[in-house]
Amino acid sequence: MKNAWKRWIKISNLAVITAIPTLISLADLHRATAEDPGACFMINSAGRTVRLTQLCSRTKTPLDSVSSDKRIFRVPIKRRLGGTPIIDVTFNDKQTFEMIVDTGASGTLITLGMASTLKLEPTGMMKAQIADGSQVQFSTSKVNSIAVGGVVANNIEVAIAPKAGIGLLGHDFFGNYNLTVLEQEVEFHPR
């Protein structure tokens, strides 16, 4: 009896071993595959993905028509001040300073310390309206170049703010670019 019992255990173990590949291949037949529905879809009440490509067709934006010879320049955001990005900006191919990317500033403003490091002498004066609406007067000077991640502007007049703790990069630098502020970088798209 013991021998018959041992043979039955061996046969049933063999049956289980031969059945496992069949179960695995049956599972493979019903494996779900993830498919990217693209950017334009919805999930209906039955949980099915419905593509909405006809509804989401869009017209070309100015960025779509940028020729391939115009590069998008990406600059890492070092940190943020009140949510506004701060990036590295190089002056006269030599000195790099952290500056705020100020999309509301028409001109570039540097600190007195930056002007001293760059050995700039005041060459003029300008009046400017600041964010609170008041008018202030700044000394001005010219820098040979300002560069950020491949974008370069030459002969830029900058305002020198004696009480500022950090400089502001304004439209006089990036006025020929559309800016996109992402989580970790700022993109400069040529217009």
Automatic annotation (TrEMBL):
Keywords: Hydrolase, Protease. This is Retroviral-like aspartic protease family protein. It comes from Atlanticothrix silvestris CENA357. One of its GO terms (biological process) is proteolysis. Signal peptide: none annotated. GO terms for molecular function: peptidase activity.
